[in-house]
Amino acid sequence: MNNLNSSQIKVLNLPINEAPPENYTGILNLYNFDKTLYCIAYLKDGYYHREDGPAVEYLNKYKAWYKEGKIHREDGPAVVPKSDVPSWWLEDILFFSGESTSLDFRNAVVLSKEPHPKYPTVKIWKILDSENISEFIIIPGMEIYIIE
To answer: 143: helix, coil or strand?
Structure first.
């Protein structure tokens, strides 16, 4: 939906029990049965997709970032539920949830913190513990859960 001005973006208003047309591209406003707004979703070719913000926003504060139908965000948590316990995803793969206690590296050595080859804001940390070398994907915002 980037490179479109607001007059070019389609907006579809539907009750929550109706599906949008197949391969719909545009903004989808879903309404409760009492006609109050329930959810705003951005779709591209029928898939949740937005490059400049969350693709799904519920009025209860839940937000989720999607790219081409996959949960994905390179610059922060991809899912922020109303409980404010975020989770970090890339291409539908969960890398960390704030429900976990932390990433505890106190008994390990951080060997390197290199940029991810595909996602410039993401880092690959190489960690040496007592048994082996492991790699951890660190997406911005996860740092507050790391104990070094």
So the answer is: helix
User: How far, in Å, CA of 54 to CA of 77, rounded?
Assistant: 10
Is the torsion defined by CA of 40, 45, 49, 51 positive or negative?
Answer: negative
pLDDT tens-place string over residues 92-135? 999 999 887 789 999 999 999 999 999 999 999 999 998 899 99
Decide: pTM greater than 0.90.
Answer: no
DSSP state letters, 42-66? EEETTEE--SSS-SEEETTS-EE-E
Q: How far does the chain reach from its first CA to its final CA, in angstroms?
A: 40
Q: Which band of pLDDT confidence, cut at 50, 70 and 90, is reported for residue 34?
A: very high
Report CA dihedral (87, 40, 54, 50) to the nearest 10 degrees: 130
User: Domain residues of the chain, as ranges?
Assistant: 11-71, 103-147
